[in-house]
Amino acid sequence: MLDLRFILENRALVEENTRNRKMSADFDRLEQLAARRSALIQEVDNIRRRQNEIAELFRQKMEPEQRQHLSEEARELKPKVSALETELREIESAIREEQGKIPNLTHPDAPAGESDEQNRECRIVGDIPQFDFKPKDHVILGEELDLIDFDAGAKVTGQNFYFLKRDAVLLDFALAQYALHILIEDGFVPHITPDLARPEILEGTGYIPRGAETQIYSLSDHSLCLIATAEITLGGMYSNEIVPEDHLPMKLAGVSHCFRTEAGAHGRASRGLYRVHQFNKVEMFIYCTPEDSDNQHPHMVALEEKIFSGLGIPYRVVDCCTGDLGGPAYRKFDLEAWMPGRGDGGEWGEVTSASNCTDYQSRRLNIRYRPAGGKPRLVHTLNGTAVATSRAIIAVMENYQQKDGSILIPRALQGYMGKERILPV
Q: What is the distance of C-alpha 246 from the center of its chain?
């Protein structure tokens, strides 16, 4: 979250940024709460000071009547300070709740806009495939090659769940291994993270664990939530810790299942594997100094491009507009792969995102580093998708489909799968 003093001293700027990000917060209430908090702190300090004075006086010689008077005053002050501290805790909780509704600041070069339709196209890489037949989408290909079973997923669990079968299972694992090896070569430390996290960790990373707008599944009998991405668990690893400066940057790769309610997601664009409730992902997460995050961000995007260019899949890079950033991101770039079966004649579909969150998450999670000879400072955090296997499977199946009904396997994945082609059963 943003620093409270910064919010109050730059209210017009922060309020305008919040509107541009299509979010809302009650700034009047926040100011009132902050003013009450300051008054309470002053009252508590005054009472504590008087209690210390009384304690010091008790060490001195005095008349019995005077001692009795001080004792009565001390007894009266104790419940007063207790009541004030209770109110102070409630006020601070309310401030944090209101503060949490305010998004991060926005990079000055991020395009203004209300939705992903206003994202700025930066570049297109790769040639869009030309077919001498009408290409099929991955749902039809999955049925014909017996690779994906949506009906069984719906019967066992519900709509937007699925079974991967046969070579689709190998393809899922191959994509994860391929992406992991690229990250390890770049110095990322691989992790398999928990698939569950405490609500406070989700809140700290900027996710809403409960409420009408949540995309998170919560366990009813436990104070735990299923994670939507390993960003949550990797971001929570160092909560309430101070890391040495010479450990930075810390580059972590997280492998996890991801669970999302995807409430309100409908339509042909969400067909099949594109928008599902559960999928596998390899995530990048970086802790670094504030001076380094602007360098790490384009490097993270370059790694995403390396992964998809290595697969031979056409993609474009877009600079996300203000209305498509989400709360924690200062700036975000998406990779959109060409999906020939999407829409009428093919469309771009998002496959990765890379966000610089500056100190927005670290302030909420209290993650700091200690510069040599200096006071602790908040780290900067960045996150990015190396590969979300469900969407990458769409891109591979649709771009590499053949006229005879088979699917070629990208050269980069053939060693992991032990074959060059997926054939009809």
A: 25
Amino acid at 105: L
Report the DSSP beta bridge partners of residue 266: none
Paired strand residues for 203? none
Q: What is the pLDDT of residues 185-235, one digit of tens each?
A: 999 999 999 999 999 999 999 998 887 778 999 998 889 999 999 999 999
CB atoms within 10 A of CB 68: 11
Q: Which of the 8 DSSP states describes residue 49? A: H
Assign 3 to helix, strand or coil.
coil
Q: Detail the DSSP E strand segments found in 49-179.
A: 120-125, 148-149, 163-164
Tens digit of pLDDT for each residue in 227-284? 999 999 999 999 999 999 999 999 999 999 999 998 655 555 678 999 999 999 999 9
Q: Which residue has the higher pLDDT, 369 or 270?
A: 369
Amino acid 70 reads L
CA distance 375 to 369: 9
* Closest residue by Cα to residue 228 from 157, 269, 281: 281
Two structure tokens written together for 415: 């060693």
Give, as one character, the DSSP assignment of residue 9.
Answer: H
Q: Tell me which amino acid residue 189 is.
A: V
Mean pLDDT of the chain: 93
Q: Are 202 and 327 in contact (CB under 8 A)?
A: no
Structure tokens at 291: 């001076």
Contact predicate 422/152, CB 8 Å: no
Cα separation, 233 vs 207, whole angstroms: 12
Two structure tokens written together for 89: 């805790």
Length of the chain, in residues:
425
